[in-house]
Amino acid sequence: MRPLRLLTGLLLVLVMAAVAVPVATHVTPGVLAALDPPPVVAPPVTPPAQIPPTAVAVPDVVAPLSPAAPAPDPAVLGAELDAALQLPGTGTFAGTVVDSADGSVLYARDAARLQAPASTIKLLTAVAALTFGQPRQVLTTSVLSSESTPGALYLHGGGDVLLGSGPSDPDAVVGRAGLGTLAAEAAAALPGPGTYTVYLDDTLFVGASLNPTWAEGDVAAGEVAPVHSLAVNSAWLEEGRSGGPRSQDAALDAARLFTAALVAAAADRGITVVPDVERRAAPGDAEPLAAVDSAPLQDQVRRMLEISDNYLAEALARVAAHGSGRPASSGGATEAITAAAVTAGVPGDGLLVGDAAGLSTRNAVSPAQLAALMRGITTSELPGVAGIAGSLPIAGVTGTLSGRFTADGPTAAGAGTIRAKTGTLNAVTGLTGHVVTADGRLLVFSFLAAGLDGATVEARAAADRAAAILAGCGCR
Fold this sequence. Notes:
The chain is α+β, with helices and mostly antiparallel strands.
């Protein structure tokens, strides 16, 4: 039974990743049958952890969960979770488990305790991005020209911080829009011999580029960097990586890469491009000369959640603020995140959002609020928000959970079944997500540990044990 149940749970969450379907609040989410009967296919096998989620086969149809599936007994479940969430030394867990279908609280342990949520706050960021933006929305990086300023070209950032330096890659998320392609198209559109100067217009994002509540050490370590409205690969200095040092002026670095590509692309047309780049906003009469589009917003949100990309989270939050009519600033972003969370059903009392990434010392969120958000996601009638449930890392398979819940370990019951967002700071560990139980009931959960002093590994293991209990037991 257990392999079949794991497979059923994996199929459910994978389909939620691929199909955004409005879900009524009174039933557990499932995927509606296609209009035409699907072809008969062999059941997919759980892929090894190194296979990216885009390579995982997704079936056309998965039967909805039954609303009559039994829920765990709170008394039985509570005893098992209390035992799993014990920590040696300093540090304590707060947590909660909620039935997604009817909202009943099945477990609560100091669930209203407000604390730093670490990167689990990116769940709120994802909801804001897809509340104030559309799943298939793209972000455009463009080259503008103006009759009022002949010889001037303006590289305008539209919020895409996943640019590539070379040709656009239509199958990628990072590098879907390439500066090399943009330069070639701009060179082809220029009206013949002449001299041109490139100006960087990164005025979409306003206000301070660094959040004053971020620790200097996090900036120095490349956890985050000054946020601009265009960047190559989330400002990491090594384009093919997802870690290490980041640029301290990613927009200017991107503009220099674009200018060098434009110099090469325009050389055979008798066009001279001044190699130096300055910042200057485009005039009001500027018109697009060339443009490249990012991967859709839903794909960027998925990447942000899977690898827990702080820079991308901050950029997406500013795009959400702009979409909500607020300034595309750090403050506008936190306001938009808070507003979207409340709309999704999160109780606002005590909720404090200091940034979009989870690094701010001002962040204060409780497990009850995170679980309410998770339930709002799994029951949302907004296709983009509902799709977030399927964009979370899969236990033992993808993203930040690829090395956890291994098939031969004590938390194997959660492998392929749990989808959750992780979060870790020096004294904090969190895990928030959803899981289908052995009896086919969809639960949402949030476990947050605080006050850790050298026990981060133990706290992470405890959170994994608790989530695996939800996957593996009927608890009745």
